[in-house]
Amino acid sequence: MNEESTNEPISRQALNKIIQKYTTPVRGKAVWQITNTLIPYAALWAAAILLIRNGYSLWWVLIPILIAAPFLVRIFVIFHDCCHSSYFKSKWANSITGYLGGILTFTPFVDWQQAHIHHHATAGNLDKRGVGDIWTLTVEEYIAAPRIKRITYRIFRNPLFLFGCGPAFVFLILQRFSQKGIQHKGRFSVYLTNLAILSIALLAGSLIGFKSYLIIQLPITILAATLGLWLFYVQHQYEEVYWARNEVRDSLKAALEGSSYYKLPKIAQWFTGNIGLHHIHHLNPSIPNYNLQPCHDEIQKLQHIEPLGLRKSLKSLFIHLWDEETKKLISFKAMRLIRKARRKSDKAD
C-alpha cells in the first residue's frame, strides 16, 4: 500500500512531496485558458457596445454584462495564479499576465501580491490577523471592545454592507491606493495600474462615449467584485474553520481545515477556475488552478475533506465571531447566549 492510500497521519512536508508534480505549469493549458476567457470577455463587451449604439434598451445590454462578470472573475483567478508565480514557468510571463489581468480587474499586481502572500503565511493564525483577510474578532475580543468598535464590527459583518457597498469600495476606491507597509515595487504597480485604467477609460470614452463605457464597465466590475468577495469570504469564513494561536498553530490544519473545499456546480467551477478547491491551494499555492482538480482526484489523502456545498455556505453569512472554547465561528445570537450564561455563573459564584 502506497503512502497516498493510507489513512495514517502525514506531515505537510510529506504531503507536499506527494503533490509536487502538480506544481509544474503547463504552457498549453495556461494559453488555452487565457484564450477561452479573454476572447468571450471581449466579445461580450463588443455585444454590449453594439446594443447601446443601436439604441437597444438597457435591459438588453444587461444580458452581456451579466455574462461578462463571471468571465472577469475567471480573469482574476488567472491574475491570482500569476501572483503566486504558478501560472507559467517564466517569471516574465507571470508578471506580464499578472499586470494585464490586474488592469482588467482594477487590482494592482505587486501590491496585491505582497499582501496575498502575507495572507497565506498567516492564514488560520489568531495572533496574526489583519492583512489580506476578512476582519474577524473572537468572542472575548468583541465583549471587551468599546461600544463604538462593536457597532462598527456589526456594520462591517452585515451582509448588506459586506456584499453591498463593500466590493465596489474595495475594487474601485481602496485598490487605487497602495497598502500600508507595501514596498516600492508594490506602490509602483498601483501607479501603473491606475494610469492604465485611466488611459483605457479615456480611449474608450473617445471611441464609444464615457457614458457607454461606464454603463458597461461599472456593472461588470461590481458584479465580478461581489462574486469574487463572496468566494474569498466563504473560503475562510465557515463554521468549522480552523483558527489557532501562533504557538500551537498547525500549518497542515491551517491549509486543509482553515480553507474550504467549496464544491460548486461544474459551470461555476469553470468560471471560478477551480478556486473552490481552496484547501489544496493553501496546501501548496504553487499548483496552478488548472491542476487543482486533477490533484484532488488523484491524491487520496486530499479526499477526506468534507466539501462545503452552496446551501451550507449561505450559513456563513450569519456567523461572525470566533469562539476559542468551541473552536467554531458563531453568530452574535450565540455570543449573547454565552454572555448570559457567564453572568449567571458569576452570580452563582
Molecular structure report:
Strands 1-2-3 form a 3-stranded mixed β-sheet. Strand 2 and strand 3 form a beta hairpin. The protein is globular and about 75 Å long. The protein has one domain. It is mainly alpha-helical and 349 residues long. Helix 10 runs antiparallel to helix 11. The N terminus is likely disordered.
Task: Kindly report how far apart the N and C termini lie.
Answer: 57 Å
Outline: globular
User: What's the helical proportion of residues?
Assistant: 55-70%
- The SS-based structural class is mainly alpha
Oligomer: single chain
* Main beta-sheet strand count, sense and barrel state: 3 strands, mixed
Count of helical regions? 17
Helix-strand pattern: HHHHHEHHHHHHHHHHHEEH
Domain count: the total is: 1
Strand segment tally = 3
Topology of helices and strands:
Layout: H1 12-18, H2 27-53, H3 58-83, H4 91-104, H5 109-122, E1 137-138, H6 139-144, H7 147-157, H8 159-162, H9 166-173, H10 184-208, H11 210-236, H12 251-256, H13 266-271, H14 278-283, H15 289-298, H16 310-313, E2 321-323, E3 328-330, H17 332-348
Parallel strand pairs: 1-2
Antiparallel strand pairs: 2-3
Helix pairs in contact: 2-3, 3-4, 3-11, 4-10, 5-10, 9-11, 10-11
